[in-house]
Design goal:
2 copies of one chain form a homodimer.
Chain A (H helix, E strand, L loop, with lengths): L3 E4 L2 E5 L10 E4 L2 H9 L6 H18 L4 H9 L6 H11 L6 H30 L5 E5 L5 H4 L5 H10 L3 E7 L6 H13 L3 E4 L4 H6 L5 E4 L3 E3 L4 E4 L3 H10 L3 E4 L5 E2 L28 E4 L6 E3 L4 E2 L8
Parallel strand pairs in A: 4-5, 4-7, 5-6, 7-10, 8-11, 10-13
Antiparallel strand pairs in A: 1-2, 2-3, 8-9, 9-12, 13-14
Helix pairs in contact in A: 1-2, 2-3, 2-4, 2-5, 3-4, 4-5, 5-7
Chain lengths: 314, 314
């Protein structure tokens, strides 16, 4: 199952703001409609955003070659934190001199690569965590096929472990303010047939402290060269709790999420979203947080396993 | 302002489940109605629950002296975590041999003592934190007059600091699942005229890590002899983040919250509430967590300041 794809000259994506109540697929032919879909989180998740950036440029090229540069610029800046969005757009834009067919072929390649990267991440992560009895995992936000074109990153690991009969239970943070855990992860886990419990975000640390979790697995929106990890706000306290409890804190992400140009998390811009998402009054709504490298047991990509807490960089 | 009081032969309390949309005061004459109000959190907060336990026994004594023991038992077990509820009920019950007037006088004493303890906690905490420039505080759940009969514990400290012109801003966790922070704390802070921002619970740790907070101040539902603190779920990750950031983690609570009979937090029963409060599907809903003593910079009561992180016990 793919959350975003190219079908008959249009970008087709499932509107994630309506899930799980309604499975509505949007057919988008205007790049600015795609910018809007990105901004209101109809499509979200760093790898899926890479595909969206790529497909958006292909869409612009199919309509009007003169508009592609400007459309790419609007796509690139639709959201600031995930490096994938800009990278997907830029990669496809680089084929513009070769014409619209080449642009589209490049966009399709981004999609294929994201999908196969996810599967590889799932296998690699399952090898890392699945060495013994079935495990109890805790995750945050949504990192399944809805976030990654296909399979998933952290949920890709869950998927492969579940195929191997090695998942006892998954605790899913509800992930305020937009409830991606309660709305999307629970929907995906139920579809997979994985035993799961949704918990309030504030409950995660003590669920870990009470010995109910064997490992924390999360995705990433951007990973700095030193191993600092930007991910959905609420990730960092999980790493603190995992370190205190002595359990692994695993970050699953494609290589496209790694940003060697950013030395540390201090260089990652944190998107401040509309306060009204949190509260109809004075509020502050940072969308991401940064987990320091020393708390990150392992970063699992489709190509390698890096151990920032042991001093390894990316 | 008192959230619960004895007025003309009845217990009068503000229904906190309706705030901030509606300020509805309930007049309760049946102890079992009070048990129901406690269970559905119309009255909540450890000190206010102490008053509720006390007034509930007085109510039973005013109706039927033969029913008092049984009513006290139902009140005592209406919620398991806060020691104040059972203690308030038991203290007033001990005056039963002296007749209903003595019982009521004892219940009124509990109320007066909770109110004056709160004011003393506020003054003591403000002395601890208010030594320099105006401070930026972060708090969790609700600990104001709504939680404590009058003034507040952690919010009592905010109140006194604000009277002294020493509050720059308060970050208030929304406190899922029941949103006591967004519903009640924001309501109280707005009424006080304190600059504040509501944040998602998961954002608190990174707001602390980014240097936006000078101290964390929270209440407590029960404090073990060694300084382990049970409080609303979501408190423990704040202590982890405060320790990592090197800022104080202050617990404000009346002596009635201290439970010397419980050696450590491991002996505190954690109430598991209805999963449906979190999610309409498989969910787990622990209402409290335990913060280990080594993360607690200071416990401030109306009588003393104890420093568990430095090895002091209560």
């Amino acid at each position: 199952m793919r959350c975003i794809d190219w079908v008959d000259g249009a970008v087709v994506l499932i509107d994630q703001t309506l899930l799980p109540a309604e499975e509505r697929w949007l057919r988008i032919t205007d790049p600015d409609e795609l910018v809007d879909a990105i901004q209101r989180l109809a499509v979200r998740g760093a790898p899926a955003l890479g595909a969206a950036g790529a497909l958006g440029v292909a869409l612009a090229a199919a309509r009007d070659l003169g508009s592609v540069e400007a459309a790419a610029a609007r796509l690139r800046s639709a959201r600031p934190t995930a490096v994938n969005l800009a990278r997907g757009a830029d990669r496809v834009l680089s084929r513009l001199p070769d014409g619209p067919a080449a642009v589209l072929a490049e966009a399709r390649s981004v999609l294929e690569e994201e999908a196969s990267a996810s599967r590889a991440i799932g296998e690699r992560g399952a090898d890392l965590l699945g060495g013994g009895a079935p495990v109890r995992l805790l995750t945050h936000c949504n990192t399944g096929w809805l976030a990654t074109v296909e399979w998933g990153t952290a949920l890709g690991i869950v998927t492969v472990l579940h195929e191997r009969g090695l998942v006892e239970r998954v605790y899913a943070d509800e992930t305020r303010p937009l409830l991606q855990g309660a709305r999307l992860t629970a929907y995906e886990l139920a579809a997979l047939g994985v035993d799961h419990r949704v918990i309030a975000d504030g409950a995660a640390a003590s669920v870990i402290a009470r010995g109910l979790v064997d490992a924390v697995v999360v995705g990433a929106d951007r990973i700095a060269a030193n191993g600092d990890v930007a991910n959905k706000v609420g990730t960092y306290p999980l790493a603190l709790a995992a370190a205190r409890a002595g359990i692994p804190f695993i970050v699953a992400a494609p290589e496209s999420t790694v940003d060697p140009a950013t030395a540390t998390g201090a260089g990652i811009e944190i998107e401040a979203r509309d306060p009204a998402e949190v509260f109809a009054g004075p509020a502050y709504n940072p969308a991401f947080d940064v987990t320091p490298a020393d708390l990150v047991t392992a970063v699992v990509t489709e190509k390698r396993t890096v151990r920032p807490a042991e001093g390894e960089s990316l």
